[in-house]
Description:
The protein has helices spanning about 10-25, 85-100, 115-120; strands at about 5, 45-50, 55-60, 65-75, 105-110, 120-130, 135-140. By secondary structure, the chain is α+β, with helices and mostly antiparallel strands. The chain has a seven-stranded mixed β-sheet with strand order 1-2-3-4-5-7-6. Strand 3 (about 55-60) and strand 4 form a beta hairpin.
Amino acid sequence: xxxxxxxxxxxxxxxxxxxxxxxxxxxxxxxxxxxxxxxxxxxxxxxxxxxxxxxxxxxxxxxxxxxxxxxxxxxxxxxxxxxxxxxxxxxxxxxxxxxxxxxxxxxxxxxxxxxxxxxxxxxxxxxxxxxxxxxxxxxxxxxxx
Length: 145
C-alpha cells in the first residue's frame, strides 16, 4: 500500500487525526485536542489508506537544516504486523533524503523500541517519560557511508 502526503486541514487530515486519537491517545486515557494540533499546519502529514479509510499515519517536522523529527506514527491495531510501519519509515527516510536532511529521529514509545532499533535507529540518551509512558530518543543517520 502506498504512503500518501496529506494536506493539512483536508478531510483526509481529519481522518488521520481520528486514527491518531483512537490508536495513540485513547489507550492512554487522553483525547487529542486543539492544543495538541497547534502548529500542525507547518508539519508534513502522511497516511496509508485502505478503501479510503486511514490505516496508518505519521507526521514529519523539520527541526533545522539537518534534522527531521518523526512523530505521531501509528498503524491501526487491526493492521499491525503487516509491514505498514516499515512502509512509513521508508517513506519518511526517502522524503528526508529528497529534502536534504541527514538525520531522522523520533521519541519512540517503549513498546516500539525494537521496531526502530531493527530499522537502523540508535538510542541516544536514557529512557524518559512523555504522555505518561516511557519513551526513547531514537536517531538514524541518512548519510551514505
